Amino acid sequence: MDYLIGLAVDPAIWAALATLIAMEIVLGIDNLIFISILTNKLPPDQRTRGRRIGISLALILRLGLVSTVAFIVQLTAPLFVVFGQGFSWRDLILIAGGLFLVWKATKEIHHNVDADPEPGAAQSGAAVLGFGAAIVQILVLDLVFSIDSIITAVGMTDHIPVMVIAVVVAVLAMLLAADPLANFIQRNPTIVMLALGFLLLIGTTLIAEGFGAHVPKGYIYAAMAFSAGIEMLNMVSRNARRKRRAQPGDGE
Fold first, then answer.
1. Long-range CB pairs of 73-78, under 8 A, 24+ apart, other chains included
2. Using CA atoms, how far apart are residues 90 and 105, in angstroms rounded to an integer?
3. In the structure, what pLDDT confidence band is assigned to residue 70 with cuts at 50, 70 and 90?
């Protein structure tokens, strides 16, 4: 109890908590984009449930990893060395997760640009994925993003309650944003392609991180924000053109 009171009155702890919450929310964007795209492939009546289950799994994984901080720290210890480059469990998980993301994003991009899809794949992308398959894929990426998220948290503070609060707040933010983001992506086909491009970028970054090439996250998110801003301008421009074309007909 005295320990918790001490944390509550320490300004440095509050500063660390605020910083960590912000970091966890930003890191959760990657996860949320993937969950949104994947659950939009489900039948409409299963999408919300799929998102909630996926995000709940992310929370369970993160809290489980927080409770095993000593184990998480060990994940960064080199297992073996290849050509002078050490590889830890974290590196292997990031590489595997990055490859999965690149494969998944490439497959979805091909599905979206294929003008003559194979018979049976021509259904609108709503119901081409089974609920169980979607949850398994979400779980795989939840694991990758959770490990990266908790290792970041461990590097910023050694206070478990602070980590737990930051993780819970970040996942609740994901839960609140999940449906609006998924619906927005569903309504705007060009946003789907942009989001898939983000997943390719994130997957490539994870692979690079796994091979020891550190890529500052700020560069990645700045590029994503810039691309999203340009796409928003394109959407505004398209809406303006549609309104201009509709005006003469209204006056007739």
1. 73/154, 75/147, 75/151, 76/151
2. 22
3. low
pLDDT at 126: 41
Q: Look at residues 222, 152, 164, 201 and name the one whose alpha carbon lies nearest to residue 34.
A: 201
CA–CA gap between residue 199 and residue 232 (Å, rounded): 18
Q: Report the candidate in 225, 204, 218, 181 with the shortest Cα–Cα distance to residue 103.
A: 204
Q: What is the pLDDT of residue 123?
A: 44
Q: Is-contact 147 114, C-beta < 8 A?
A: no
Q: For 122-132, how does the pLDDT look when each residue is reduced to its tens digit (9 = 90+)?
A: 444 444 568 88
Q: Could you tell me how far CA 160 lies from the centroid of its own chain?
A: 23
Residue 202 contacts by C-beta under 8 Å, 6 or more apart in sequence?
30, 98, 101, 220
Determine the Cα angle at 174 with ends 94 and 37, to 5°: 65
Q: What is the DSSP string of 21-57?
A: HHHHHHHHHHHHHHHHHHHTTS-HHHHHHHHHHHHHH
Task: Say how far apart CA 205 and CA 186 lie, in whole Å.
Answer: 26
